[in-house]
Amino acid sequence: MHDLIAITPLGATRPRIDSHGPVTLTEVTDRALASVAARFGHEAQANALVASLIGTPAPGPARMGGDTLTAFWMGPDQWMLSAPIETHEDLAERIKAEAKGTASITDQTGAWCRFDLSGDGLADVLERLTNTNTRAFTGGEAQRAGIEHMGCFLLCHNPRHISVIGPRSSADSLHHALLTAIRSAH
């Protein structure tokens, strides 16, 4: 029998936390992810499915919503859903069972990495990395952004808490870019 040990996107056994000045950068590893894409002709049903899962209307363009189970808009009739992995390790399978063929569901947990920035001056940090107007963020925004040639998502929980989701295969590069921008801004 193999003794496998789970590792974080940065290759450690525990999530990494870095602080510099008023900003903390945290590697987030406790979330399950699943994408939901409406099948042709079933857009309304997929929208209703997402709304029923997160307990609020399905997010529209550039928005996110929900509480324990959250969703953000990825494109027309497409969302990424997220939930605590401790209670939703099988998130994609659960959604697939409820979708009843109206949407294509894919487990995305191992494909992405997430880093949370918290503290003051997050717009000062992010303006060094992307042209997204993070100064206008008030909470609930979900923007696709290029960071160091990587396709990422910026999720604004509130102006003092922004998540950056990027490709897991580029976790080291994304972490380095975020940490360098934090040090440059503060």
In short:
This protein has 5 helices and 11 strands; from the N terminus they run βββαβββααββαβββα. The protein has 2 domains: 17-29 and 110-185, Probable tRNA modification gtpase trme, domain 1 (Gyrase A, domain 2, 2-Layer Sandwich); 31-107, 2-Layer Sandwich (Alpha-Beta Plaits), CATH 3.30.70.
Keywords:
186 residues; alpha+beta; Gyrase A, domain 2; Alpha-Beta Plaits; 37% strand; globular
Helical content (DSSP H or I, runs of 4+): 10-25%
Counting DSSP E segments of at least 2 residues, the number of strands comes to: 11
The CATH class of the largest domain: Alpha Beta
**What is the element string, with H for helices and E for strands?**
EEEHEEEHHEEHEEEH
Beta-strand proportion: 35-45%
What is the C-alpha radius of gyration, as a whole number of Å? Answer: 17 Å
**Largest sheet: spatial strand order:** 1-2-8-11-10-9
Mean pLDDT: 97
Q: Major beta sheet, specifics? A: 6 strands, antiparallel
* SS-based class: alpha+beta
CATH-defined fold name of the largest domain: Gyrase A, domain 2
Spans with pLDDT under 50 lasting ≥5 residues?
A: none
For CATH, the homologous superfamily of the largest domain is named as Probable tRNA modification gtpase trme, domain 1
* Number of contiguous helices: 5
**Number of self-contained structural domains:** 2
Question: Can you describe this structure?
Answer:
The chain has helices at residues 43-54, 85-88, 91-99, 122-126, 171-185, and strands at 17-20, 23-28, 31-38, 64-66, 70-75, 78-84, 103-107, 112-119, 142-147, 150-158, 161-167. The chain is of the alpha+beta class. It has two domains: 17-29 and 110-185, 2-Layer Sandwich (Gyrase A, domain 2), CATH 3.30.1360; 31-107, Alpha-Beta Plaits (2-Layer Sandwich). A hairpin with a 2-residue loop joins strand 10 (150-158) and strand 11 (161-167). It is globular.
